[in-house]
Structure prediction request, 182 residues.
Amino acid sequence: MRLLLRLADGADALNRAIGLSARWLAVLLVLTQFVVVVLRYAYGSSFVWMQESVTYLHAFLFMLAIGYAYLLDQHVRVDFFYANWSERTKAWVDLVGVLVAVLPFCWLLVWASWGYVSVSFRLGEGPMQYGGLPLQPYLKALILVMAGLLAIQALSVVIRAVAVIAGAAETVFPHRQTTGEA
Prediction:
């Protein structure tokens, strides 16, 4: 069990590093959007590549931070009943939730978008608009990266849930109580 928990710690560390790095994209996103608005309304000018960069930054921010949000237990959940349950009952719910919903969703996302992404790379897809950023294949590939990061964190949750059920750990989301990173 210790080896599996160390594997879960590695998955947590990966998503934490990516999440903490991705949060700086929010600052860049706000600054870029501010410049776009100032250029448009104060100077009557705009750049398509700058407007598109807002879309790219937004996509990168949210798709790269998905595993980090799951790590910190900041995903959407109805806590009406869950909050009052024992850690063991929560672990069972989390385990079933990952196996029934999260991992199948990740698989479906990869399956449904694989062709979409590969065609984009094969065609060498260009910018969304004339004068835009020629990075569309990479933006689309981010869908696969997002599914991978979510699946890695889901496997960490599975390991920790099994550990809680077996009595080898106290909680499925240890970072929820011990961190002020969010």
The CA atoms of residues 31 and 54 lie 10 Å apart. The mean pLDDT is 91. The two ends are 28 Å apart (CA to CA).
